[in-house]
């Protein structure tokens, strides 16, 4: 081998060695790059895992927050429901009079309130006011509800309203109503409405008695009349057969209203009104308090004459016929006896001597006589001694 070939071989080997070194360096670089990429990938995976974990934690936190929120809302709802139930139970358990509303000073003079419609709750299914309903009760206690609106509520002739007449009446008074104020539609006062609310069945005599007693104690005028019906409070109590109220009214103003007449009933008295409506309790109460059963109305009829005739009633009104029969007899027995004989002219004995009068009786002066177990002696023709008392007689 020549020297040149040996040099070429060495250069070739060196070149190969360099290539190997370069290849090994590239491999190491590639491995390093690969390791770096793997590490980066691992870091990315770890970041993704951490992110997923964070997201999961966030989701868990959100879910927990949502659950807490829902739990809190549910608890609040349950608490609200419990409070509503409790409030409703209290409304049912406590009397309506237990609720408070602002009290205003009453006016010093009465007035006539304008007519108004009764306020009703929105989307209310009934056409009448029911104080037992929470929505209606809220309206009743609302200070913004006016006196005319409360009068309109009182006009609802249903048990739900009439049984609460004392509660509604108190609400009217709390708003500054004078005890003798009138409803502009009916011209009735609170006392008139109270007597009407005592009707058995639709009304409640106990509630009506409470309000009537309160109104009278506040100075309500028992003699006031409605200009439309010409009836006073006693007439209403007699018409609706409420003897409990009749006693209270007569105690407050007996002489003035006991036999007062009413134009809408042929100018008859409260006794006429009660008799014509077969109000046995009212008739008995009026008679007990001295009502005159002999007063005649403008048709010349006494209370006993206006009682419906029992024989004219149908068979399905047998109970009413029995009441009518009892009423007629009761009023007939109450009428005082009267003598319809014409006046007679009595003889005048002023000029007849006393001895002639005695002789006409078969008596003589000085004789003792006995009248009704009482000894009487004629003395000296001048006097009689009777039970130790002296009665002077004129003797001619």
From TrEMBL:
Annotated SMART domains: ANK (SM00248)
Listed name of the protein: CAP-Gly domain-containing linker protein 3
Species: Takifugu flavidus (sansaifugu)
Domain of life: Eukaryota
ANK repeats: 266-298
Acidic residues bias locations: 28-67
Gene3D superfamilies: Ankyrin repeat-containing domain
Compositionally skewed regions (Basic and acidic residues) per UniProt: 1-27, 68-89
A Pfam family reported for this protein in Swiss-Prot or TrEMBL: Ank_2
Disordered: region residues: 1-114
Alphabetical keyword list: ANK repeat, Repeat
